[in-house]
Amino acid sequence: MTTERRMPSPTADERTMLEGWLEFHRQTLAWKCEGLTDEQLRSPAVEPSDLSLLGLVRHMADVERSWFRRVLTNEDVAPLYWSDEDPDAEFRLTEADTYAEAHAAWQAEIETARGNAARFGLDDLSEGKHRRTGERFNLRWLYTHMIEEYARHNGHADLIRERIDGSTGD
């Protein structure tokens, strides 16, 4: 499988632009994981960090789930990989953790996110609130935050991938 990344149109309206950049960054993380074995994907960035490409995919599955389900639509769903007792569990991997499982969970959360977001306008406030701050967010803020979240972690993914096999690219 080859991930096709599409740059958003430079003349798109605001919503199309935001959705386009979010999709681009989702595709970038998938691209950074392509062609690697589960062992390589579980490989940490550098000691003592647990940060790995597989951990990033699991993390982003939970981030998508949290913002587009728990906050945006007030759905009562548990995290996929972390817990209050172990908030970084998505990065603590075992031999049993596979990219196939994490990728499927991540893609399912992305599909749900797209469907949930389609029901809201950019200025519409979320039905749920942030679990720590109690704030509500409009969809514009949520899209912008998700673009930032992916962009930051895609920078991590660039460095991890280069360490694994020397591959570089934007």
Walkthrough of the structure:
- This protein has 170 residues and is an all-alpha fold.
- The protein has one domain (41-165): Four Helix Bundle (Hemerythrin (Met), subunit A) (Up-down Bundle).
- It is 54% helix and 0% strand.
- The chain is built from five helices and no strands.
- It starts with 13 loop residues before the first helix and ends in a 5-residue tail after the last helix.
- The mean pLDDT is 95.
- This is Putative Mini-circle uncharacterized 19.1 kDa protein.
- Pfam families: MST (PF04978).
- It comes from Streptomyces afghaniensis 772.
- InterPro entries: DinB/YfiT-like, MST-like.
Give the overall silhouette: globular
- Rounded Rg: 16 Å
Briefly note the CATH topology name. Four Helix Bundle (Hemerythrin (Met), subunit A)
The main pleated sheet reads as: none
Query: What share of the residues does DSSP label as strand, in percent?
Result: under 5%
User: Span from first to last CA?
Assistant: 19 Å
Protein name: Putative Mini-circle uncharacterized 19.1 kDa protein
Pfam families: MST
InterPro entries: DinB/YfiT-like (IPR034660), MST-like (IPR007061)
